[in-house]
Amino acid sequence: MAPERRLIPQETNPLARIQCTSNVVGVIPPQIHDILTSATQPPQGRVDDRASGISFLLGRGDDSSTISLWEHSTQTLNEELAPPSGLCVKLTHPEHCPVDAGSNVADSDVLLVACLGPNANDGTATQYGGGGRHGRDQGRALRHVYAASPTTGVLCVWVLDTNNLQLRSGSSVIAGDIMTGVECDASVRLKLKPGESLAALTPIRGSSMDGGLGGTAWLLAATSLGRLWKIYKTSRPLTLHAKLVKKNSIAESATSSLEEGEEAGYVRGLYNYFTTPSKKSSYYADDNPVDNRGADASTSDEEEKIVALVPILPPVSSNVGGGKEGTPRSPMRKSHTPPRKQPRISAAPSDTCARALSLSSSLVVKEWKVSLSSGSESSEGARTNNTEKEGYMSRIELFPRLDDGTLDLERLRSDAEDDLAGYRDADVLASPSLGGDGRSLIVVVRFEKEDSESTRVYVVRIGLTSVPGERDGSPYIMDAAWLDRYSGQSLSSVGGTLECAGLVSAEVVEEETVALAGGVGGVVAYVGLGPRGDTGRGSGGQPPCPVTISAVHFLSAKAFAVGRQPQHPRVKDLDLYSNIIPSVVKNSMSYDSITGGCVFLATSGILGGASVRFPSDVNIQRGAEGAAVAALMDESLIHDETVLTIKSHLQSAFRHYLNKLKEGGGNSNNPARAVIPPSIGTCTSQVLSAAVVLASKDFVCATAGGASSSSPFSPKPATSPVTVLRDKLQMHKNFVNFLAHGGAYRRVSTSGRIRLRDHGEMINAARALLIESQSYFSNADSVAAATQDDTRRSELAQVRQMVTSALEGTSDDVTALPHSWARLQQQLPENTNGDECSQLEKDLFFLTSSSICHGIGQALRYRQNESGILYDIPSYDSCSVSSHISPWTSSPEMLEVFFTQLQAIQRVGEPILSASLDFDTDTMNMRQYVEDISASALSGHRDVVLRKPDDDEATKTYEETKLLSIPLLRRYANDDGDDLLALQSSLAHSFFEGIVQICHDHKQSWKFHTPYSDEASDERYDLRPMLSNTSSASPYAHLHQSRDYRTGLPFCAYVLRWYADRGLYPDVFELGKNCPHDLTRYVRNDDRISDLAWIQHLRVGGGQQATVGLLSLNSPVLFGDKQEESIGLWEKDQLMSLAKLSNKLASAKSANPAVDGQTTDLIENNLTLTSAQRILQEDTEFGDEIALNADDLLRLAAEKINSARDVDEIKRYGICGLAIAS
């Protein structure tokens, strides 16, 4: 990715589970950029308003009545940025008069705008299809723009047609200029009361397209006095009508009935027709038809100033069966009479009401039921009876006030120590957003105390559906997230430096891993917070704080129904680069169907996007469920009828996309339209992922050959294999772009994305294999031609024939690439005796090794460059276990290829180098082969073992690969004896034997240099820090979490045993200083050094254990053979002296003097015996005497007395005898 496209630092931690992306995704037209940068007040606008494909910017100051529109267009990261070339027009509201005239226009006086396009339906975005959303070749698509003046109550509508829009303009337009002078097509005036203003405008039902001509559309408008207006647009003629919605409370089960005094049929229709103002006379204040029941409705709720309206999606009607929300459709029957003229207003019986939520400034939520019947006439001209009762069905105050006037915020408490008392004011900072799951409403609320420093901002989720056994269906607070990143003063309504740029919600796509474990997905809300437009810039021209996109992950509402424990929402903050995104145009944030995140407009004229993928909170068992996930392409899915159907739908839509590209619609200024069939939106993520992978496999496996080709995506015949692979790669990228632009790629699971990336990598690897083979033979032919060596030419011809046969079909089916390498390896020499290799065998060896290295190198380079840009997955995914799918480089076939090639290097490496004519070149090549192939083999096996830790066969193969790779690295990849690369590989893959052997070998060169030498130890090969650093932040932490495959020992125990096996007991205790607890356990369990356990006891302060151990020794420890039964006199004397010292240390800490006295007496008795024996044997002492027991010493004393020569000797021997006897 180009650095200038990235808006946040690149994630470098391979253990990070939350995947965050934020990039520049587009730019605005130059005309709009000029308007944006010349604004005297902080601008407001909207990007891709209601998925209509239209973005707009509202004028401020003297241009407060203008609306600048342009066609929304974004580009993926592998597309060049280009401004949209479609619709670009400036509209002027004819009767907008802000209360604050001049340059300072309040936010409450800004025009209310709603745009509807071909993708808009019921005021919300179509989930799939990117036609209007991204400016994809719209044709004659009509766009409707509604604009209401809050102060005058005049609502205007413009119907925009990109093909003939210039003909409607009152002035000529020069290419590159913004179109002006477009008059509105219809208007209506809402009768406002004194001091009343419009506060919200939203579509609730209908589309801007009805058979391509435009049909009925319904909107709701709310006022500052809590009144609700419904506005509907009709065709033939194009007019706007307004009716006041009654504010009475109704029951949710209210049935359709005609209320008293309601007019219907032809009389009402004629009245509407003659009293509805035309386009030229629609600005008169008192001539608009209003509801004769609602004009003087009760004003008991007028204190509730409505600040936002959110439509609730209607239930999907089925073609069969009825129900409360719809009636069964009658079968179609043939008509024998001419069709009647279509009525101007028509509403199906099952589509006669709409529902919406209103949110007041006092945080009161009302659920409204609005009748969509307006006195329509039937085809028979009879009076109809399909009017629904309307009003609000429920009313709930989210945060009621306590007796002291403060807000009750206990529902927001997540911590028992959290202080939520004393908050008096509450403000809604952005238009609420209906949750992506359709079950909740997301609201951003600011709470303030009387002092501006005590301010909090919460993202509150309001539940709209009932929980079985708990709720009655009325709205309720489900959970909330406190955005505690900023201080209260910066968020204050008075003097605060931050403002909310918008709110967007998206549904978390449930991948197969979540579904298998009972996961329930969730909702992610994106909240933009940035510097106010009037705060200026700080030092250095930078804004006082960066723009932050806070992604809040809420658990799905289904979790409450299945009994899951409530969890606090997770928050991830993305700080955008201030030099690219200084601030965000207020209210410009919108949903991005490509990434499932948000898109926004910066004041610099750049369109930015952000997306956060939260990992599942479900722990997947690595058993049968994990195997089911891993089998993304197993036989059951490959032959599943649903998967095959979805695959065919994808391929059909992709053909149309390719045709658009071939027709020239794929340039950067007019990208091809990506239309996704509706069936894609109804299938599960697992089915869609499998279908996408199967469709992609058809592309990469297509065979060139014209009529014999089984795929419509087959490359042209008579093209070179390298060209075929180049075309396949381009088609593969086009397919991924097609999925992204159509909004389907975001539902492809991580496993499916890895499989798609595998296809791209294999195409690159296969192409590198063919290019490397061609290059090898070209160079060899040149050398043979220069030397005129006919024998060499004959050998090359033979090798070329063998290689051509082995690589046949590589460009047709790239998924069989491992088998192509395996066929090459079958021809390698079986040199097991170290004999000299022939030139033909050398050619095959070098060609196979270089092709594997270049192929895998190109695949890994493609993975690094395209993972984030094209596939939206981290490039280091192969090192994590976030997915149960390993990349193709870790497949059993590729691992077998790597292992076989390493074996070949082990067999023929030395014979080839010993007979080489160019030793330096061949040595360098051999080093590259060993480094690249061993790294790929070890990494691949690690991927498999991480995902299958209980697979003993995989672990065994991994160990065999280590035993083969590390010695090869020490042999061919060292610099003058420096085994650093081999050591690093051993550390990375927890190969204990390699670590200890390498460190021990290098220790011999420096262990005698310290502490009396100026030369320090080589810390790179020092085992001591590896043994002592066990913390999670240590680079050696993974060693202490692993075990040796053959012995099952942890790292520290393995090192101690390795040295003990070689009789290096001093090294055992020396290295054991760095892991004292491990040494204590080890010496207690190893019989070879268990007699020396007292040494470790003394080190760790265990004097009593050391004393007991010393007293229990009856065989030689320090000197002599341990198999001897008797201990030497000198050794026993030393051991008893040590026991006496350790006992003194133990006595200082002991609480039992009696036991200590007994131990002391025992030690003194033993010392007395050794002293007596030394006196008795002083004439015959040679230093190797065996320590005698008391009985033997008494007999020896008697013998000495009997043989004494004088009285002094008799006395001395007699005293010794008495001491022994005592």
Concise summary:
The chain has 1222 residues and is α+β, with helices and mostly antiparallel strands. The chain has 31 helices and 32 strands. Helix 14 packs across helix 16, helix 26 runs antiparallel to helix 27 and helix 27 packs antiparallel against helix 28.
Oligomeric state of the chains in view: single chain
Give the overall shape. flat
The main sheet orders its strands as 2-3-4-5-11
Distance between the termini: 91 Å
How many beta strands in the DSSP annotation? 32
Counting helices, strands and paired strands, the structural category is alpha+beta
Helical content, roughly? 25-40%
Spans of at least 5 consecutive residues whose pLDDT stays below 50 are: 119-140, 207-214, 254-271, 273-302, 315-350, 376-386, 511-520, 618-633, 666-670, 706-712
Mean pLDDT: 76
How many H/I helical runs? 31
The major beta sheet can be summarized as: 5 strands, mixed
Radius of gyration: 42 Å
Percent range for β-strand residues: 15-25%
Which short descriptors sum up this protein?
alpha+beta, 5-stranded mixed beta sheet
Q: Could you characterize the architecture of this molecule?
A:
This protein has 1222 residues and is an alpha+beta fold. It has 31 helices and 32 strands. It has a 5-stranded mixed sheet. Strands 21, 22, 23, 24 and 25 form a 5-stranded antiparallel sheet that branches. It has a 4-stranded antiparallel sheet with strand order 1-32-31-30, with no helix packed on it. α19 (952-972) packs antiparallel against α20 (980-988), α28 (1129-1149) runs antiparallel to α29 and α30 runs antiparallel to α31 (1207-1221). The longest helix has 38 residues, at 750-787. The radius of gyration is 42 Å and the shape is flat. The termini are far apart. About 13% of the residues have low confidence.
